[in-house]
Amino acid sequence: MCRLDKRPATEQLTIWGSVDVWQSAHVKKVRLPAKLTTLRQKLYRKAKLEPKFRFYVLYDRIYRRDVLSSAYQIARANKGAAGVDGVTFDDIESSPGGLEGFLDEIQESLSARTYRSMAVRRGWMPKPDGRKRPLGIPTIRDRVVQTAALLIIEPIFEADFMDCSYGFRPKRSAHDALAEVRKYLKKGLNAAYDADLRGYFDSIPHEKLMKCLRMRIVDRSVLKLIRMWLQAPVVEQDRHGGKKVTRNKKGTPQGGVISPLLANVYLHWFEKVFYSMEGPGNWAKAQIVRYADDFVVLARYTGSRMCDFIESKIESWLGLELNRDKTKIVNLRQPGASLDFLGFTFRYKRDLKGRGFRYLNVTPSAKALKAQREALRKRISTRQSHVPVPHLIVGVNGQLRGWANYFSFGYPRQAMRTMNWYVRSRLKKHLRRRSQRPFRPPNGRSFYQHFKKLGLIYL
């Protein structure tokens, strides 16, 4: 069953020596100072050895100079747009006081307890289905303070989190979550409750979240900081070009540095009760696999008792909302049944070599393929006709590599072939419409050879 982290103590502690920073398809490392690494290890060890201990002296650690300097380096590596004040990293570093003056001001305001968070700028990220996901973009100053707080409190909660949680955690990835789903399916847990939470980050009740935080932290100054970030006003442009200011009574802004940790803290309590004596993790031997707000429950049988338990705890107890249109119950043993999770489709298929057995096939989902085709269509469109073809292919290669790195899990060969064909057909049309005369490759060279000569990669 899902359990607390049982890795050897030496391995548990090594994860706190550096911080993963996600930027595009690359993972960069920001090396933390030795004293900060030691502090994080001590906090993790204390929390691990004493599960009921509540930390009461943390605030002064947040504004330590090595913590603030590391927080700035992490925020700098993550890049990101400016907040409502319009200040960029270059502005900070080229100002009269420079970076040191910027950190001095933050340190002084935190130590004097005069720090106040600024408003959050509303941004929008397009989703694969055409809708837009709201983002809250804090100022760089607030991002640095949030990252400093994260460096201090993350080890405490990480000591509590269960193995079934994978999103936004050190040394864990979506591929690890997918491998866990595959493992349970192969063990015979083929009945799946595929849950979809409606607007999870925007719907977390503040008071209930603060109660979850107080289970481990009783330092009022730290809790005040977190509440300040949760209640920060949101500024966005209205349809007339003016500014619209709103205050959220629930939710934690996507785009905030500390939001992923808070989201994990809240859903951790669903996992705790799921594996308690009263939960289906005990009496049905069911398993959860969760990545951020996406989770699936796997069991040998999914009956009304289990569904009622999940829905009552999610909606009544936690105050969240399940999207009933997208939440599904699937039995993969039924012909044609499939489970979509984190962009992949799990389904049983018959062996094509005629050996008479079924195997678990894991491939990129139809939705993921559609999203990639749309991304490539935008890169190879009439709007890009002014871009030299070699430069265009460099961008296409980057898109293909990023997609292939993630979708290399399972059996992606057919999906890769489909994407290769799509890219080459789009490029062929693109070359032919760039001029009045239809383009033809040089004599004795096919389009495939021509694209290869230009540097186009083949998945």
List the helices and strands and how they pair.
Elements: H1 9-14, E1 18-23, E2 26-31, H2 34-49, H3 59-62, H4 65-78, H5 89-94, H6 98-111, E3 120-126, E4 132-137, H7 140-158, H8 174-186, E5 191-196, H9 200-203, H10 206-214, H11 220-230, E6 234-237, E7 243-246, H12 259-274, H13 280-283, E8 287-291, E9 294-299, H14 304-317, E10 328-331, E11 339-341, E12 344-350, E13 358-364, H15 366-379, H16 389-406, H17 413-433, H18 447-454
Helix pairs in contact: 2-7, 4-7, 10-12, 15-16, 15-17
What does this structure look like?
The longest helix has 21 residues, at 413-433. A hairpin with a 2-residue loop joins strand 1 (18-23) and strand 2. This protein is globular. The chain starts with 8 loop residues before the first helix and ends in a 5-residue tail after the last helix. It contains 18 helices and 13 strands. It has helices spanning 9-14, 34-49, 59-62, 65-78, 89-94, 98-111, 140-158, 174-186, 200-203, 206-214, 220-230, 259-274, 280-283, 304-317, 366-379, 389-406, 413-433, 447-454, and strands at 18-23, 26-31, 120-126, 132-137, 191-196, 234-237, 243-246, 287-291, 294-299, 328-331, 339-341, 344-350, 358-364. Strands 4-3-6-7 form a four-stranded mixed sheet, with no helix packed on it. It has a four-stranded antiparallel sheet with strand order 8-9-5-10, covered by helices on one side. With 459 residues, the protein is an alpha+beta fold. Residues 1-15 and 21-27 have low confidence and may be disordered.
